[in-house]
Design the sequence.
């Protein structure tokens, strides 16, 4: 995974753009250069849950700083998913409490808090720093959705994490929407009481 080397380098990525429910979660993982003994990280979507859970503590324990940023389902409905994703990324950077020398951002957009950041399309597959952030964001978001499962078990958030699976769609048809569903998303808005 070819990425530049020098000083404090941060990677930022989000998890949860596609689900019908819950927040979007971003992580900013900052390293001092490249770690000597690198684990084989990859885009979180290409890893099994077991692989992500194994890499998560290694990243958190070895990175220089890890920040988390969340944009709620209400914010997603209010400002749209793209803007909410960028807001959560900005919050993740702020949560680290530092300004890295270089910030690599997954996708094609920069973020307000670091105008000189370098967006990289499909960065989570190309770059170690962004891949680390993608793993942390995904694990944290999954944990949030597992907690929501306890409150709203009929939607099976523990399994589907809010994504539009057949079972999730069936549950929405049967029970209507929960307070954490994204009301502006197709698959949810059709079920709003008029």
Sequence:
């Amino acid at each position: 995974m070819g990425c530049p080397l020098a000083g404090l380098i941060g990677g930022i990525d989000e998890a949860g753009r596609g689900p019908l429910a819950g927040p979007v979660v971003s992580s900013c993982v900052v390293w001092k250069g490249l770690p000597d003994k690198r684990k084989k990280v990859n885009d979180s979507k290409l890893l099994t849950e077991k692989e992500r859970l194994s890499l998560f503590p290694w990243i958190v324990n070895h990175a220089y700083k890890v920040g988390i940023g969340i944009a709620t389902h209400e914010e997603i409905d209010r400002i749209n998913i793209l803007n909410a994703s960028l807001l959560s990324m900005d919050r993740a950077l702020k949560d680290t409490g530092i300004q890295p020398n270089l910030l690599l951002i997954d996708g094609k957009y920069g973020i307000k808090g670091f105008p000189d950041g370098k967006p990289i399309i499909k960065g989570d597959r190309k770059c170690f720093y962004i891949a680390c952030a993608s793993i942390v964001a995904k694990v944290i978001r999954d944990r949030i959705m597992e907690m929501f499962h306890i409150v709203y078990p009929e939607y099976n958030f523990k399994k589907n994490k809010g994504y539009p699976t057949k079972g999730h769609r069936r549950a929405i048809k049967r029970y209507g929407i929960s307070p954490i569903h994204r009301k502006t998303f197709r698959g949810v808005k059709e079920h709003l009481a008029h």
Notes: Residues 128-151 form the longest helix (24 residues). The longest strand covers residues 24-32.
